[in-house]
Amino acid sequence: MSAGSGAAAARRVEEQAPHGPGEDGPVEERDRTVTVVARAWPPGLSREPTMRISDVLADLRPDFPTVTPSKLRFLEEQGLVEPRRTAGGYRQYSPADVARLRYVLRQQRDRYLPLKVIGDQLAALDAGEAAEPVVPRLATRDGERTGEGGRARFTVGALAGDTGVDPALITALVDAGVVDVAPSGHLPVWARDVVLAAAALQEHGVDVRHLRSFRAAADRQVSVVDQIVAPLRAQRSGGPARAASTAAEVGELCGRLHTAMVRAGVADLAP
Predict the structure, then answer these.
(1) How far apart are alpha carbons 8 and 38 in whole angstroms?
(2) Model confidence at 1: pLDDT above 60
(3) Predicted TM-score of the model (pTM)
């Protein structure tokens, strides 16, 4: 069974159980088999396959708008979920399968974890060796879904209220091109982290105009990632899903490399 398998795992333990002497004969040795069944995570959800792939996509897309049938098939190929097949070969998913998919997609999106690590996490959850993750509840702010579990978008005013940062600073970040803004006037979810970091740097005298170089460096790193995943996107079978997973993993590695280099350079500044 793969690391992220959704099937129930069974462990069979065999032991010899000697029976006492009977009235009519000698001691008899018999095999006694004890089966311990460990149900796959998450517990308490139905494992009845009642959902077609279109139903699964409808359930996931409010939080993961870019998820596609090929992405779901790719995650199945990686052993992270195991939908059942009908006699005609069509996939059918259970509510428990959807919960596992949601966990995988959230770990990829919010923590940039590679699928192997996510598979190891699911295996630990299946075995009861890890605590069950707590999923933040979604709230609404300015009519948009928010919270770490959703694809939140902010207006400038909503982001200022959420972070406590002066709206003038957020507007300056947008004007300087440090933060993107959609035609609707909304800022992407990742703008929150950028705004908080920019506000902290401003306390040390770092002006918004100095942050343009950070954005330019990030854009160059994104360009490198794009070159890596471009051939994957062109593949017909599962290409977009592989491209998305690879982009998340390589992007995280670029971030780690940048952090390590800055830390090394900063360490040399102090005697």
Answers:
(1) 6
(2) no
(3) 0.50
